[in-house]
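Action item from last meeting closed. Structure (163 res):
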């Protein structure tokens, strides 16, 4: 059975994509004030999943260039929306291989970085990942509103049944 937190992560991922529905490649590059552009946001979220669930959990290195392009603390950039969505899809599909195996007991464990346990547990990283998505979903909708986009999705979409 898929862990309920993983189900929540999948839901928030779908909400991110729902918020990008109808977005043009051109508008995905527009920066509003000090905010990053929409293409940066999706690449940025992909970078976090890549680090946690692909690199730390599975020892794989996908899209190493993303960290410098859209990682935390990087300079503002306007990467291709199509490329960022494509990378996000590859990363989240790869991440799911690990996430599908998570149990409540595993959430208490810690990944090792440079031969030392990371400060935060896997469960805390998963919670951080969920919150990070919600933060940027709100930001992305504010950007779209500032761009004059109409008929944007309302918070929160259809919720799946929880067993």
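Sequence:
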């Amino acid at each position: 059975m898929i862990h309920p937190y993983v189900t929540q992560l999948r839901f928030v991922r779908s909400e991110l994509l729902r918020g990008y529905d109808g977005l043009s490649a051109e508008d995905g590059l527009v920066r509003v004030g000090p905010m990053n552009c929409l293409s940066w946001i999706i690449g940025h979220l992909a970078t976090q999943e890549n680090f946690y669930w692909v690199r730390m959990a599975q020892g794989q290195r996908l899209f190493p260039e993303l960290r410098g392009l859209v990682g935390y603390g990087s300079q503002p950039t306007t990467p291709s929306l199509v490329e960022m969505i494509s990378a996000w899809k590859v990363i989240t599909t790869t991440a799911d291989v690990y996430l599908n195996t998570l149990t409540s007991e595993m959430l208490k464990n810690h990944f090792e970085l440079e031969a030392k346990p990371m400060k935060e547990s896997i469960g805390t990283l998963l919670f951080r990942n969920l919150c990070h998505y919600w933060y940027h979903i709100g930001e992305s909708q504010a950007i779209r509103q500032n761009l004059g986009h109409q008929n944007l999705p309302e918070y929160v979409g259809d919720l799946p049944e929880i067993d």
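Note appended to the action item: Residues 20 and 140 are 8 Å apart (CA to CA).
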